[in-house]
Design goal:
The protein is an alpha+beta fold. 41% of the residues lie in helices and 17% in strands. Helix 4 packs antiparallel against helix 5.
C-alpha cells in the first residue's frame, strides 16, 4: 500500500520547468526594455543634432557689421534700395546679379608701373574697381591701399609683353588683379567683395 501511494513522485519536477520559463520571459522583457530605451535615446540624439548633422543653435548667424549687397531701387518691391546682410564668414565667389544690385566704383589715384618679365619693357596701368556691396568694402579698400598696391604690382610684374598686348591677355590680367585685391582684403578684413577690375589707362613700352 505504501509503495503504490509513492508512485506519482517522478512528476514532481514539473513546477521547476514553469519557474525556469518564467525567469527566461522576465529576462527577455528586461532586455527588450533596455533595447527600446537605447533606440529612443539614439533617436533623440539624432533629432537634437547631438549625433551627426548640425545643431540648430550652430546655424551661422547674420553679422550686422558685414558688408551688405545693395539692391537697386525697385529691384523687388519698389520701396527703394535694400541691403542684404550676409551670414558671418559667408562670401560667395559668384558675382551678384547686376540687374538687381547696384555697383559702386573706386579709382586708384596713382597708376601702377612695373617691368615686364620677358623684356626691358614696362607696363603702366590705371585701375578702377567695382563692388555690389556697401561703403564698407570701399573703406576697406582705402584702408589697405599699400598692401593692395603691392599685390597689384606683383601681378603686373609677372606679365609678358606679348600676352598683355592681346585681348585675351588683358582679360586674364583683369581676373588676376581682381583675385589679388580680394585676397588682400580677405586676409586683412575677412571679406573681399570686389566684383571686377577695370583699366582706366594701359601703356606698354
Amino acid at each position: 500500500m505504501s509503495s503504490a501511494a509513492a508512485a506519482p513522485a517522478p512528476d514532481a519536477p514539473a513546477p521547476k520547468k514553469k519557474g525556469k520559463m518564467k525567469g527566461i520571459l522576465v529576462m527577455l522583457v528586461v532586455a527588450l526594455l533596455f533595447a527600446g530605451i537605447g533606440v529612443g535615446a539614439g533617436l533623440y540624439a539624432a533629432g537634437s543634432g547631438l549625433v551627426g548633422g548640425k545643431h540648430k543653435e550652430e546655424e551661422v548667424p547674420e553679422d550686422p557689421n558685414a558688408p551688405k549687397l545693395v539692391k537697386k531701387e525697385g529691384a523687388e518691391d519698389g520701396h527703394g534700395a535694400e541691403k542684404q546682410t550676409l551670414p558671418v564668414g559667408l562670401e560667395t565667389d559668384k558675382s551678384p546679379d547686376p540687374t538687381k544690385y547696384k555697383a559702386s566704383y573706386y579709382a586708384f589715384e596713382q597708376p601702377f608701373t612695373a617691368n615686364l618679365r620677358d623684356s626691358d619693357g614696362f607696363a603702366q596701368i590705371g585701375l578702377g574697381v567695382s563692388t555690389f556691396y556697401d561703403q564698407k568694402v570701399l573703406d576697406n579698400l582705402k584702408d589697405n591701399d599699400m598692401p593692395i598696391r603691392s599685390a597689384i604690382l606683383m601681378v603686373l610684374s609677372q606679365q609678358d609683353s606679348f600676352s598683355i598686348a592681346t585681348p585675351d591677355g588683358k582679360l586674364k590680367l583683369q581676373k588676376e588683379l581682381k583675385d589679388a585685391v580680394n585676397t588682400v582684403l580677405k586676409q586683412r578684413t575677412g571679406f573681399g567683395g570686389i566684383d571686377n577690375v577695370y583699366f582706366t589707362s594701359l601703356v606698354v613700352q
